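Replying to the earlier thread about multi-chain prediction with a worked example.

Input:
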Amino acid sequence: MKAVGFKKHLSLEDKNSLFDFETPIPKATGRDLLVKIDAIAVNPIDISVRMNGSEEYGTPKILGWDACGTVVSTGEQAVLFKKGDFVFYAGAFDRPGSNAEYQLVDERLVGHAPEGMDIADVAAMPLTSLTAWEALFEKIRVNIDDVSDNEKKTILIINGAGGVGSVATQLAHLAGLHVIATASRTETIAWTKAHGADQTINHRQKMAPQLYELGYENVDYILGLNDIDGHFKEMAEMIKPNGRIVSITGNKKPLDLGLLKPKSAEFMWEWMYTKSYYQLPEMITQHESLEKIAVLLEQKKIKSTANKIIDGINAENLKAAHALIETNSSIGKIVLCR
Amino acid sequence: MKAVGFKKHLSLEDKNSLFDFETPIPKATGRDLLVKIDAIAVNPIDISVRMNGSEEYGTPKILGWDACGTVVSTGEQAVLFKKGDFVFYAGAFDRPGSNAEYQLVDERLVGHAPEGMDIADVAAMPLTSLTAWEALFEKIRVNIDDVSDNEKKTILIINGAGGVGSVATQLAHLAGLHVIATASRTETIAWTKAHGADQTINHRQKMAPQLYELGYENVDYILGLNDIDGHFKEMAEMIKPNGRIVSITGNKKPLDLGLLKPKSAEFMWEWMYTKSYYQLPEMITQHESLEKIAVLLEQKKIKSTANKIIDGINAENLKAAHALIETNSSIGKIVLCR
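Result:
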């Protein structure tokens, strides 16, 4: 089969940073599904893994987490899917990725794809939806089944127009929360308001005074989606006592956690690959969450965040997608279709 | 009325570090109760507030949080208690304390004292019980109403024989958790086992290998009750993926929070004064929790952690109590009775 990979961690200017190659089609065993890929989306994690590291790989490493496609065979223990099912998933962190014609994925990480949607719109969703879902409904513990309790609660989503932000704003809005998202440019402000934000503030200026201008002394929840080093102090200032902060972006400098102590505030990391990386029993919740997300997409309660579509899954197109994300100003998701 | 107070933050050698003085009996208004104090307990917070600060007070500052006593009058909005009720409470951080003959306390922070117990045993309990209760049942979210889910879960309580540890081990045991507590001396090991710990390890040696010896690769929950600076790295190593860490002791150095990221682990501070300090609506939960704690004490499902009783609430005795806690090796609680 065709695949795109790399052997050394290189910058995009290097022609070997990502290259096309041929490799055998893998065989599904255990709870794996073999999926023929229709479309993939590119996430910041793709860029991060491609760029960082000093290893050299004997056989090329295949990147790619988001994907949709068709099940062509199933392992002997697979029970959730059958041949011919159209599926979507973000896979596992430590297995060969979706930048290929075929891919193996554990069925507990897979959902039936929503029906009646373009494949690009489907492929854009799994990683960001699962991240936003787990952050909001498992870490922050917003009640999605009974939203009456959420009406008086406010969430601040830092970087509302990014991949996770564009889904998190929608899910938070759907759950009845008052959603304040940060955005700094005309087009990101418009995008995030079109994706569920009630109000926006600019994270390139001091945020607390802007929040106060909107009539909020503090917020119940904060979802941090970029530059936690730069924003942590303000997050501690803006969070309500006993409030909850969840972050998906790691810190490079020490965070002054003591700032949260008088408020007994909670700090949670969300990494959607924790469950599969540690092979936790709760891996199955990713199947369950994707099934629910598919229904929300079908019912148009949330919409796809695909914003740029490129035809052809190959090294050249992937490099173009990586380059766009490296600018750090892309809006929504970039998708490559077969 | 008689009271004990200080005007400057001094070490115990200074005779003015704590002194007896006379001050008018205050008057209950709003939701306050005026309580005639029968017994008080001394906590590390008493020592910390007495020692740290550069302020000088015109009128003496009265310390003391834990107390039990009798309601002698109520404010016009008080609805939960009446004159003559025997009550226990840990009060608010920022109001005059219990080291006095009478004290005002907001009724939302007060419980009916358990019946049939010595006043010393009652006075020992509020602050540590509320802290342990909130840490376990509100922050870590152990289900106390349906304990069937807790049987397979393990909690590590660092410093099991201290004030909060001696209640937390009991409550965690009552909730059905497997309780591993840390203790380093023969007498603290015996004490913590008598207060609900199933097993102990020594926090003065590397903890992870000892945990492994007991058959545990990691634990679901960690309750950190001392030296988070010294223990944080090991806490991150020992916590289960998606596990929960709660700490009551503040950090003096930056904590490497990124260690928790791959595991998507949660970190929560517990400060039992957050609710009253910020006057949160959930202040009332401290009344509710104390009512439940009183029942557990009456039913002997948990026992008082009073371990040393001194007769007479005065400066001399308080200094002796402070001195004992300053050794950092006291077990259970020190109580002063009128």
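The mean pLDDT of chain A is 96.

Feel free to reuse this layout for your own posts.
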